[in-house]
Amino acid sequence: MSTYAPAYAMSKAALNAFTRILAQTYRGRGVLANAVDPGWVRTDMGGSAAPRSVQQGAETTVWLATLPDDGPTGGFFRDRRPIAW
Prior knowledge:
The longest helix has 21 residues, at 6-26. The chain is mainly alpha-helical and 85 residues long. Helices cover 39% and strands 8% of the residues. A three-stranded mixed sheet has the order 1-2-3.
């Protein structure tokens, strides 16, 4: 982030923690909890200069939503690949 935005940063940290807590709570019970970074997407919020299409931004979310019960949980993903928190 080029601009210091404490509320935004804190909300992202809370989502990361919530993802990890959900994953641990429901591990082994058929519920997977993961987070997604769609990247900078051409939407009303992202603007027309964003390099990624809506389809590209949604692809990993759809993939995670359709994982088998033994799929990854507690992770953070972009383009179907785990990324560092």
